[in-house]
Specification:
By secondary structure, the protein is mostly helical. The protein has helices at 3-8, 12-45, 52-78, 96-123, 127-151. It binds fe (ii) ion (2 copies). Residues 35, 61, 65, 107, 110, 140, 143 line the site of one fe (ii) ion.
Length: 163
C-alpha cells in the first residue's frame, strides 16, 4: 500500500486506546451515579447537631457529581460510546461515621481513576477531555477534604502512588 493511502487508515493502536478509554469512562460514570445516590441518601439521614454542617456539604457534592456525570456521558457519546445507565453499588449503614467513610473511600478511588484517565486522554490527544478531567479532580479533592475533616482524619494520600 502506498504511504499516502496508509496514513488515511485509522491507526489500530489508537483505536484500541480509544475503546479502552470509553470503557474506563463508563466505569467512572457508574461511580458518579453511585456518588449522586450516596450523597442524596446520606445527606438526608445524617441526624444530630454534630453532622448538620457536613449534611449540607453533601447536598452540594450531590449536585457537583451530577455535573460530572453529565460531562462524562457527553464525552462518552462524543467518542462514539454508549453511556452506561447502571450505578456502582451504594453501601448503607445506620452509623454516620460509616456513611462518611464509604464516601471518603469512594472519592479516593475516584481520584485515583481520574488521574489515570487524564493520562489516557492525553495519550490519544484528546486534550479537551484531559482538561475537563483536571477540573473534576479538583472538585473531587475538595469532596475528599470535606469528608476527612468531618471524620477528623487526614486526607488519604493519592500522590505517592504515582498514578
Ligand atoms: Fe464526581
Ligand atoms: Fe466527589
Amino acid at each position: 500500500m502506498p504511504e499516502k493511502e496508509k496514513s488515511k487508515k485509522a491507526d489500530p493502536q489508537q483505536q484500541s486506546a480509544v475503546k479502552k478509554l470509553i470503557a474506563d469512562l463508563n466505569e467512572d460514570l457508574a461511580r458518579e451515579y453511585q456518588a449522586i445516590i450516596g450523597y442524596t441518601v446520606y445527606s438526608n439521614v445524617l441526624k444530630g447537631a454534630k453532622w448538620m454542617n457536613i449534611a449540607a456539604e453533601l447536598k452540594l457534592h450531590a449536585a457537583q457529581e451530577l455535573e460530572h456525570a453529565m460531562i462524562l456521558a457527553d464525552q462518552i457519546d462524543y467518542l462514539g460510546g454508549m453511556p452506561t445507565a447502571t450505578p456502582k453499588l451504594v453501601k448503607l449503614s445506620e452509623k454516620p461515621e460509616d456513611m462518611l467513610q464509604f464516601d471518603l473511600d469512594n472519592e479516593t478511588v475516584t481520584i485515583k481513576n481520574y488521574r489515570l484517565r487524564v493520562k489516557q486522554a492525553e495519550a490519544v490527544a484528546h486534550y479537551g477531555l484531559a482538561e475537563q478531567l483536571r477540573t473534576i479532580i479538583t472538585q473531587e479533592q475538595n469532596h475528599q477534604h470535606d469528608l476527612a475533616t468531618a471524620l477528623g482524619i487526614d486526607v488519604p494520600d493519592v500522590f505517592s502512588e504515582g498514578a
